[in-house]
Amino acid sequence: MNDESRTTGKPGSVMGANTDSKIERGCKAPTFDQKTSDDETLPREERERLWRIENAEAIAEQNEYVAKHGLPFAKYRQF
Questions:
Q1: In this structure, are residues 24 and 12 in contact, taking their beta carbons and an 8 Å threshold?
Q2: Residue of 17, 20, 1 whose CA lies nearest to 9
Q3: Are 63 and 56 in contact, with CB atoms under 8 Å apart?
Q4: How far is 61 from 54, CA to CA, in rounded Å?
Q5: pLDDT at res. 28
Q6: pTM score, two decimals?
Q7: Measured distance CA(26)–CA(7) in Å, rounded
Q8: Pick from 50, 34, 53: which is nearest to 42 by CA?
Q9: Are 42 and 35 in contact (CB under 8 A)?
Q10: Contact call for residues 39 and 50 (beta carbons, < 8 A)
Q11: What residues in the chain have per-residue pLDDT under 50?
Q12: Alpha carbon distance 9, 12 (integer Å)
């Protein structure tokens, strides 16, 4: 069998060759702004206040559990 009959398609059409050629050409990954949300522009106190409002239900449930059952592993505390 001839080696030429085994190849199909264009040279470099092997899977992954396109990515490799981009790396060889020195392409860089796109850069994105580091800020993830508008909340980062707010003062820390305001972010904390908003976090407490958003998580008020979970905080209340946790406080209720501790009031009813006590602290987990309290018998092992040494302070």
A1: no
A2: 17
A3: no
A4: 13
A5: 65
A6: 0.45
A7: 28
A8: 50
A9: no
A10: yes
A11: none
A12: 9
Look up residue 70 and give its amino acid.
Answer: G
Three-state DSSP class for 72? coil
Q: What is the pLDDT of residue 79?
A: 79
Structure-token match 């800020």, residue found: 35
**Triad 41, 46, 47: Cα angle to 5°:** 65
CA distance 13 to 17: 6
Cα–Cα distance list, 13 to 27, 72, 77 (Å): 19, 61, 65
Across 39-69, b (16+ Cβ under 10 Å) vs e yields: eeeeeeeeeeeeeeeeeeeeeeeeeeeeeee
> Of 65, 39, 67, nearest to 53 (Cα)?
39
Distance separating alpha carbons of residues 59 and 65, to the nearest angstrom: 10
Largest CA distance in the chain: 82
